[in-house]
Design goal:
- By secondary structure, this protein is α/β, with parallel strands linked by helices.
- Helix 2 crosses helix 12 and helix 7 packs parallel to helix 12.
- It is globular, with a radius of gyration of 20 Å.
- It is built from twelve helices and 13 strands.
- It is about 35% helix and about 20% strand.
- About 35% of the residues are buried.
- Strands 5-4-1-11-12-13 form a six-stranded parallel β-sheet, sandwiched between helices. A three-stranded antiparallel β-sheet has the order 7-6-10, with helices on one face.
């Protein structure tokens, strides 16, 4: 059970009313944003901190940037992959994964590409990655269908290795699944003290095209398996979400966690769920981030760190959630 000290972070009346509704809820949706991953120590690359070296991160996340300078774009995404693999799923990821196992009609829509929800063992069929994943690779050639899912090799090619200063022996390297576990064993469980290449004062190499990841099928370049600005969201994911929302049964609860929920189409999912009967619960560090539609009577807003609040909110169903453990 949650301790009395922890429960004081959430107004008792709000927590009790939420728990009562949660226990009655069968069909549940969750929309996740960067805030849930910030609790794991990952930079969001949004707002005032949205720069990598001297580049606005959004300018690197386009097909045009990759076409012009694939080496630079790969260095940016390789840095993000490396950071994500060095982080661990937090208790919010774990609580949502456990809720999915206990509520088969629970669907999570994640705008995050960091792979933390899959590493928390969130059931794949109940996790819809709206923007793809840093851990996926696909061919840059649109006529080639090569796709590599959950590739945890770090670095993907030697030229993308993060520069290091010395080394230390690892005792708790992060393990996502069997693939990642085997990769870490191959590296002899060595974690290097990495140079921070997000700092523009740190020099980085100008990579040649031949040094970048290439498709084993057609030998064109591989690209990160994420959705870039100007690209459509995955059609199969949108169809799955649409089918869930349009099902005859009502939706009982919509969780909006760590996201402003103001960018479409994700911003529309909350209102669509509400139109299907859902009450809405928002968890956010920013009291102004209540979604494009705002809060309505019967909704909840829980202010604070998702890693602390979400496990407490879901405790009646998922039980006590401890920290992430490697297997």
């Amino acid at each position: 059970m949650a301790s009395a000290e922890k429960s004081l972070k959430i107004p008792k009346k709000d927590l009790e009313s939420f728990h009562e509704h949660l226990k009655r809820s069968k069909r549940i949706m969750a929309l996740l944003g960067a805030g849930i991953s910030a609790s794991s120590g990952l930079p969001t690359f949004r707002g005032a901190g949205g720069y990598w070296r001297t580049y606005n991160a959004t300018t690197l996340a386009t097909p045009g940037s990759f076409s012009e300078n694939p080496g630079l774009v790969w260095q940016f995404y390789n840095y993000r992959r490396h950071m994500a693999l060095s982080a661990k799923p937090n208790r919010a990821h774990l609580a949502l994964a456990e809720l999915a196992r206990r509520r088969p009609e629970f669907m999570t829509l994640s705008q995050n590409v960091d792979g933390l929800s899959p590493r928390a063992r969130h059931p794949e069929s109940q996790l819809k990655l709206l923007h793809g994943s840093l851990m996926d690779l696909k061919c840059w050639n649109r006529n080639c269908n090569y796709f590599d899912k959950n590739n945890f090799v770090d670095p993907i090619v030697p030229a993308l290795a993060i520069p290091s200063e010395g080394s230390t022996t690892a005792s708790d390297a992060p393990v996502a699944n069997e693939t990642l576990h085997n990769e870490l064993k191959r590296k002899a469980a060595v974690i290097r003290k990495d140079v921070d290449i997000s700092d523009a004062q740190v020099p980085i190499s100008q990579l040649k095209t031949e040094d970048l990841p290439h498709c084993p099928t057609c030998n064109d370049l591989l690209r990160p398996g994420v959705v870039w600005f100007g690209e459509a969201l995955p059609q199969d994911v949108l169809e799955d979400v649409g089918n869930f929302i349009d099902a005859p049964e009502r939706i009982d609860l919509m969780l909006v966690i760590g996201t402003s929920s103001k960018v479409h189409p994700a911003a529309g999912f909350t209102d669509q769920a509400r139109a299907r009967g859902a009450r809405v619960a928002v968890v956010n560090m920013d009291t102004k981030d209540v979604g494009a539609g705002g809060l309505r009577k019967g909704d909840w807003f829980f202010h604070g760190d998702a890693a602390e609040i979400v496990p407490e909110l879901l405790e009646p169903i998922v039980g006590d959630i401890g920290p992430f453990k490697e297997t």
